[in-house]
Amino acid sequence: MERRTNEVSRLQELNRVEVENKMSPYRYVISTQRYSIFGQLVKLSTHSRTIHSSGVTLLCPTDEAFENMDNWKLLLRKGNQEELDDFVAHHVLPAVMTYEEFKLKDQHNTLAGDEMAVSTRGGIFANDAHVRSGHVTTENGSVLGLDDVAYVPFTLR
Description:
Elements: H1 2-16, H2 25-31, H3 36-44, H4 48-53, E1 56-61, H5 81-89, E2 92-93, H6 99-104, E3 107-109, E4 115-119, E5 125-126, E6 129-130, E7 136-138, E8 141-146
Parallel strand pairs: 1-8
Antiparallel strand pairs: 1-2, 3-4, 4-5, 5-6, 7-8
Helix pairs in contact: 2-3
């Protein structure tokens, strides 16, 4: 009986482990605990379909990055869809690239139409946001993690 109880406990523990979905950058970011806040914002943005179905590189701030941007919840308020979309678009690069490819250029165009500056002095930075080393490859894109938020809408500064 005790063996059966242990086996049931083990299976319950296995069922709690969340699997990262690597179908697309969109699916990855909404299924990963490390990026749960950004995943929530991406899911609510009008760019979610583009991030899911087009070949893009998604720059994902970790949940810890949002601790330094304490007013991020304003993006969720009714009437702030434009700011939310702008925020997300500045974290999307409309090309699939690896970490190595990302750091080779001095700048990249974002989905918002702006240029994102890349610096390799003292680490890799995208608009002063530290880029975590490595990347996650999905079926139709890639994901680069950020330790900071790469862009803050003007209305939230």
